[in-house]
Amino acid sequence: MDFQWLNTFVMAAQCENFRRAAELLYISQPSVTVHIKLLEQSLGVQLFQREGKKIKLTEAGRRYYDHAEKLLELYRTGLEDLNSFSQGYSTKLSLGISPLIADTILPFVIKSYTDKHPEVEISIKVLDSIDIEEAVLKEDVDLGLSCLNSQHSKLASELLYKDRILFIAPHDGRDAEMAPPLDEEELFSHYYLFTHNHPGYWDELCTTIKNKYPKIKMMKVSQTHITKRFIVEGLGVSFLPESTVRRELLEGRLLEVHDHSFNLPEANTYAIMKYKHSQQKEFLEFLSNYRI
């Protein structure tokens, strides 16, 4: 049996049309017909029946369709593994990371890790923190780096680091040493407060601020990098993890408001695992050497 016949069969079953299957597979329509006939001869059953210009799976075809998909998936997985081996990879590590973490030090960490461990093939899925737990549980990823802790009984969660939260405002154009301190009440009266750019601390923080400033205007902005862009453009203020604004503060594009009337929370980052295998532990040990 040729795996090309299986591929043609699956595509034809999905399209219910030999001509369309041929277009998607970049082969001729007669080739599609030949592949199907050869597969039917090999299996000893009829896989399709014609209904006008369309084709439909027979009962035998429907039963075999799922098996064909599984065989193709095994074939493709084998090719991918062989390709990885031929490129010098001997192990794999898949990571699920939140957009906020992906936007900070992680690119540097990944580069340093792959330089030191060229035998490890790393794949990365950028997922919202709320979805990372499920991805680890389903084993879609080996290790999750999330802004949210996991309480699931089948998963292990470790606190990686804590990040200070800073009150961030747009630069006012004045000299930092000569200008008077930024006033919290004045900022809240002139600007929107951009909220919920981090999944861990905003609900409680919003309640605290709203109790003191009932008339404050709030706007939910789900992504940190968009929040920063809005602040740079003078549209509002926000409370952001220090690691996410360090560069903008050094470059003078944003200002930290040092005087505020309430205690600020911390932003935590967690490692979430289903299995504490050597590959996960080695990566976490490597990651622990870096201050994010």
From TrEMBL:
It comes from the Bacteria. One of its GO terms (molecular function) is transcription cis-regulatory region binding. Keywords: DNA-binding, Transcription, Transcription regulation. Transmembrane segments: none annotated. Residues 1-58 form the HTH lysR-type domain. InterPro entries: LysR_HTH_N, LysR_subst-bd, WH-like_DNA-bd_sf, WH_DNA-bd_sf. PANTHER family: HTH-TYPE TRANSCRIPTIONAL REGULATOR, HTH-TYPE TRANSCRIPTIONAL REGULATOR CITR. Belongs to the LysR transcriptional regulatory family. This is LysR family transcriptional regulator. It comes from Bacillus yapensis.
